[in-house]
Structure formats: C-alpha cells, structure tokens
Design a protein that fits this description.
about 500 residues; mainly alpha; two-stranded antiparallel sheet
C-alpha cells in the first residue's frame, strides 16, 4: 500500500493537479466565507466544469473546494455571526462572542488550526482505515441509525443556554418544521397547507440563512444610527505567531483530538454528514470542560471542537462513497456524480479496477489539507478587513448575499420567503432569550430519526423491543440513557447549589 501511495504522490505532484487543488481551496474559502453560500452550492455549480478535464485534475479541484468551503464558513460565523455553511452553525456560538470581545484573530486562527488537525484525522482514516470503517458503517441499519441520531439529539441539553425548558421548546419547533413535506414512508403530503412548494420540505439552506443571517441583521439594525463606525476596531484583531498558535493547540489538544475522532466516525456513517458532527463535538467538549458555563460566552474550546469535527468529516465522508457507493452526505453525493461522469463507478470494485486513480485521489486529499492551511493562513487578513466596513454597509451586503445564495440553490422565490420568515422567527427567539441552536439541530436530525424509526418498526413488525435486541443499537441507546442521567444529576446539583443559602462569614 505504501508503494501505491508513493507512486500516486509522484503522479499527483504536477503543476496541473497542484494548481487545481489550490484553485479549488481558494474558491472554497471565498464561497464558504460569504453568508448564504456554501460548499454544497459551490460544488453543484462548478462540478459540471470538471467533466471536461481528467479525473486527477477535476476531482482534486472539487476536493479542495469541499475543504476550503467547510473551513471558510467559520470566517463569517466568527466575524459577523452568520455561518457560511450549516456545518459552521455551532462555531458562531462562541466564535462570534470572541469577536465581540476583540478576540476575532484568536478565534479564526484557532478554527484554522483545529480544522487542520481534524482534516488530517479524516484524511488518515480515508487512506488507511477506509475498508475497516466502511465495514462497520455498512452494517448500520435503520435501528442503528435511529439510536445514533437519538444520541445526537441529547446534545440539545448542552446547547440550550441557561434554560433547558426553552431549549426543548426550540427543539420542538425544529421537529415540527422538519415534519413539513412528504411522508417518507407513505408518500403523502403533510403540513403543506396545500402549497406545492412545501411538498419537498423546507429548504435547509433557506432555514439556516434566515435563522442566523437575517436574524443577526435584524438584531444589528437595532443599534444602527448615529455615527457610522466599523463592526469592531481592526486594531483589536491580532493574529498570533506560529509559536503562540502551537501552544494554543497543545493546550487544547485533548478537545481537538476528541472532536476530530467524532467527526471522522460520524463522517464515515452514510447520511449523517457534517451538520451533525459539530454539534456532537461541541456538546462533548462542553460536557468535558471544567467550566461548562463559559460555553456560549466566548469559550475557545467552543470554536476548536466544531471546527475540528466538521473538517474531519470532509475526508471521512468519502469512505462509504468510494468503497460502497453510498455518499456520506450531500457534498459527497455531488462528488460521487462527478466520479461517475468521469467513468469511475464508486463501489467495492473501484479500488481494484482503478487503483492508480483512487490512490491519486487519496494523495490529492492529503495535498488539499496542506493547501487549506497555507491559503487559509495567507488570506486570513483579507477576511479581517471585513471588520473595517461600516455596519450598515456590511449587513446590507450580508442580506444581498443571503438572497443570492438562497435563490441560487433552486431558483425559488418561495425559498426567499422561507428565509425571511425564519429570520423573523429567529429574531423573536433571540429577543425571548431562547437558543436557536437546538431548533437547527432538531430540524436536521428529525427527518433521519423519523425515517429510521419507522423503517425499523416495519422490519420488526412493530416490536419496539427489537431495537434492544441488536448489539450496536443497544449499546448506543444505553449510552444515550447514561448521558441523560448524567446531565439530570449535574443539573440537579447545580440547582441545589444555587438554592442553598450562603455560608455566614
């Protein structure tokens, strides 16, 4: 295998492939950093242009775009509180707070370094552990998926802010909106109000852009007026040197490694995708922290954890796609269509029949990791200049990009209405001090949860106890129960401590 990798490195290390990876990474950074756009959208728009070049030029370009777009979304999440992609929604919880505290440079460099480590974990898993991890993932049926998604939903406990009740309310709203569309089993419309546009469900990009982009604009509009000034003083933004960056990574290495492993594992599971892993990693980081109350208030680990996880997904999501022809998420589904257009049919025989090309793609993924760090670091100050733009102008541009990005997905004016509607919903929730994160998390997971539960019940003739008869499902369900019990105990202790009278001096 090492010989194959060495031979592939020699083949890939040419100016055309390197230029394709570099161009893809830079384009991805630009697309990801613009609110309303995403790596998914960029790949959907640009993948047809790769059909006219060789597979070791076109596919590496898309790989670079994928990785660059995934990290690029953290730029706008940190700087203006609007995630460039749904995968970066968890990043803004603490990243935006750090920016408000004048720590934008620290947050951005932390996100870049965490992304590098997470990317490296996912790449190593793809190159050396693809067959083993894919064999585990392929054994997951609807019972296992239900248990895994249910476990992911327990993270709502850790992203609900000060009030768990308000977090549950927001999560319930997310589940309700996820039910809009067509019944995944029966195929009948539900909660569509007779609207044909709602039969396919609510567009997740429109929902995310509205909840975070438009909502933030509405919040910021309250403070408009008077002297026009930048979002924040650019002098306060400082990018630490390599030595300080290394110390920061080492100090939080446990969080970064744990989150990278979470992203790698979830990325290797078909259908979960990069929207889930950041929330799971964020919740675990908060749970493991000695001071969990600082999360949501500018915790550095709150930036490192989701960024390490979502970039680890990039390469890991290619594992089931390449080996079994099952895309790990939406982006790898687009990547799979590009491979098919190149005459490469993903599946068990792909590596055997096109060994040189596939190992060339493995090395392209590795080179893209290096390119992400180089171009991410070189262009960092370009993005920081966004902070010097007066707020009315900046957020006007944000609205424009949100509109263009949302409309470009399906060329639907109805989606624009959905975006603005959820912008108002998010604004109301923010004013009521209700966390938005549980709503988005439950919206993303509810569809998978419902479909896997119903399919599992169909397979077991309605026997709910069949979920506990499968070893993997039983283990995950037990872990879910333990997490809920642990949180309940910690919450009880916290309330008991807060209600106990203070000791006399």
């Amino acid at each position: 295998m090492l010989e194959d990798l060495l031979a592939a490195a020699i083949v890939v290390f040419n100016w055309k492939t390197i230029a394709a990876i570099s161009a893809g990474t830079v384009v991805g950074l630009m697309i990801g950093a613009i609110p309303g756009l995403s790596a998914t959208m960029g790949m959907a728009l640009l993948s047809p242009f790769t059909f006219f070049v060789g597979p070791l030029i076109g596919i590496p370009f898309l790989i670079g775009l994928f990785k660059g777009g995934t990290f690029g979304g953290s730029v706008s999440a940190i700087l203006i509180g609007t995630p460039g992609t749904a995968a970066n929604a968890a990043t803004l919880l603490d990243g935006y707070e750090m920016r408000k505290q004048g720590r934008a440079g620290e947050a951005m460099m932390g996100a870049l370094n965490a992304s590098l480590v997470g990317d490296a974990f996912g790449t190593v898993a793809l190159i050396f552990g693809a067959p083993a991890l894919a064999l585990i993932a392929i054994q997951f049926g609807p019972h296992e998926f239900f248990a895994l998604v249910l476990f992911s939903l327990t993270m709502i406990c850790y992203v609900s802010g000060k009030s768990l009740a308000k977090g549950v309310l927001a999560a319930s709203l997310g589940v309700f909106f996820a039910l809009v569309g067509t019944d995944p089993i029966g195929g009948t419309p539900r909660l569509t109000l007779g609207m044909r546009e709602l039969q396919g469900g609510l567009n997740v990009i429109a929902l995310v852009t509205g909840l975070f982009g438009i909502t933030e604009v509405l919040i910021q509009m309250e403070s408009f007026g008077g002297r026009r000034k930048p979002v924040v003083d650019s002098v306060a933004v400082h990018l630490a040197g390599a030595g300080m960056q290394l110390k920061a990574v080492v100090a939080h290495l446990r969080t970064i490694v744990r989150s990278s492993l979470v992203g790698t594992f979830i990325g290797a599971l078909p259908g979960i995708g990069s929207e889930t892993s950041p929330w799971v990693a964020y919740g675990l980081a908060k749970r493991a922290s000695k001071d969990p109350d600082k999360f949501g208030k500018g915790a550095f680990e709150g930036v490192l954890a989701p960024e390490a996880a979502n970039n680890a997904v990039c390469a890991a999501a290619m594992i089931p796609m390449l080996v079994f022809g099952i895309p790990g998420d939406i982006v790898t589904a687009i990547l799979m269509s590009a491979l098919i257009a190149q005459g490469l049919q993903p599946g068990p025989f792909l590596i055997a029949e096109h060994r040189d090309v596939i190992f060339g793609l493995f090395m392209s993924v590795l080179f893209a990791t290096v390119a992400l760090y180089i171009f991410g670091r070189l262009t960092m100050r370009w993005w920081i200049r966004i902070l010097t733009i007066p707020r009315p102008l900046l957020y006007s541009i944000v609205v424009a990009f949100c509109v263009v990005g949302t409309y470009s997905v399906k060329s639907s004016s109805f989606d624009l209405g959905v975006m603005f509607a959820f912008g108002i919903v998010g604004y109301i929730l923010r004013k009521l001090d209700i966390a938005i994160a549980p709503m988005l998390l439950s919206f993303v997971l509810a569809k998978i949860l419902e479909e896997s539960l119903r399919r599992g019940l169909v397979q077991s003739d309605g026997n709910i106890f069949a979920f506990f008869e499968r070893p993997i499902t039983a283990v995950i369900l037990i872990l879910t129960g333990l997490v809920l019990i642990t949180f309940a105990v910690l919450e009880w202790r916290r309330r008991r401590k807060s209600q106990s009278p203070s000791e006399p001096a």
